[in-house]
Amino acid sequence: MRGLAQAKIENMGLYLYAGDHGITDEGISLYPKAVTRQMLANFEAGGAAVNVLARQHGVAVTVIDAGVGEGTKNFSQMAAMTAEECSERLLAGRVDAREAAGKFELVGVGEMGIGNTTSAAAILAAIGGYTAVEVTGRGTGLDDEGVRHKAQVIDAALDKHALRGAGALQVLQSVGGFEIARMAGFLMEAGCLKLPVMLDGFITCAAALVAVKMEASTREVLFFSHSSAERGHGRMLEELDGDPILDLGMRLGEGSGAILGMHLLKCAMNLYHDMATFESASVSRSEA
Predict the structure, then answer these.
(1) Strand pairing partners for 97?
(2) Active-site residue, selected from the candidate residues 26, 111, 189, 254
(3) DSSP state string for the chain
(4) Dist CA 288 CA 282 (whole Å)
(5) Separation between Cα atoms, residue 28 and residue 159, nearest integer Å
(6) For 43-81, how does the pLDDT look when each residue is reduced to its tens digit (9 = 90+)?
(7) What is the pLDDT, as a whole number, of residue 287?
(8) CATH, domain 12-269, list 3.40.50.10210, 3.30.710.10, 3.40.50.1820, 3.40.470.10
(9) Domain locations in the chain as residue ranges
(10) Which residues are paired to 111 by β-bridges?
(11) Which of 16, 47, 134, 202 is 20 to 30 Å from the Cα of 126, by its Cα?
């Protein structure tokens, strides 16, 4: 990817994007959107699960407030963001990627945003041509009735905004999240810069789906850390032709899976560089 015969992974970073979602007004999550701000503070203080994993594996975490407090609009009533707001986040993500390329050989992306599994499922349903029921999961722990309601909200929004078969940019603006838009910008610029990126779960893959549909070359730099427990993630991976490294039923988000994937990729690179060959270890290839 980087165009180097002897590429190494010495510095790793995780960009963690947070944003609020107006669609929470429709009761699609067990938790209020105020939790996003509280978790953002926890990330910055170093107390979240992803911070623990990052310290263990030597990953520098950059926390990005992509729209906490401000938040997107309730997309069951109107477009989640204006064209200008969407463009601003895409551009900001590209700037983030240029910064990352100057510091890291491998980066991961993670996210936090109450309501963002609803946005991700809506994006997948619109771009992939699925019904909401096929791609809508429990998110933070909804029961069966909660999942049915969430799917109904998504289907109604897709019809309201005429998104079935629409272009990726229109889908993103209509039902996306500020953090998803900024991640999409990050991924597209990473593709331009040949910067390898380890994706986390369902939400980061939604950003990747948008990015790949807008700029196909983005796909060339993507790694997929895991297949999560969220219902639509398997279909999301199929849309992206993604081969997940792990399948452990993970569902935390935050970039936790991305860090584990980054660690395994670094292990593989270390084996490539440091493991003895048969010749250097004087191992015979045939019987004497």
Answers:
(1) none
(2) 254
(3) --S-TT-----EEEEEEEE--GGGGGS-SSS-THHHHHHHHHHHHT-SHHHHHHHHHTEEEEEEEEETTT----TTTS-SS-HHHHHHHHHHHHHHHHHHHTT-SEEEEEEE-TTHHHHHHHHHHHHHT--HHHH---TTT--HHHHHHHHHHHHHHHHHTT-TT--HHHHHHHH--HHHHHHHHHHHHHHHHT--EEE-SHHHHHHHHHHHHH-GGGGGGEEE-B--SSTTHHHHHHHHT---SB-S-----TTHHHHHHHHHHHHHHHHHHHSPPTTTTT--SS--
(4) 13
(5) 18
(6) 999 999 999 999 999 999 999 999 999 999 999 999 999
(7) 66
(8) 3.40.50.10210
(9) 12-269
(10) 17
(11) 16
Q: Which regions of the chain are under pLDDT 50?
A: none
For the question of residue 254 being annotated catalytic, the response is yes
User: Which one-letter amino acid corresponds to residue 126?
Assistant: A
In this prediction, residue 288 carries a pLDDT of: 55
* pLDDT value of position 282: 83
pTM of the model: 0.95
Judge whether 153 and 60 are in contact, CB under 8 Å.
no
Sequence letter at residue 119 = S
Instruction: Find, among 263, 188, 239, 252, the residue nearest to 14 by Cα.
Output: 263
Residue 246: per-residue pLDDT: 97
Beginning with the edge strand found earlier in the chain, give each strand of the sheet holding 106-112 in spatial order. Answer: 59-67, 12-19, 106-112, 197-199, 222-224
> Residue type at 48?
A
> How many whole angstroms separate alpha carbon 252 and alpha carbon 207?
17
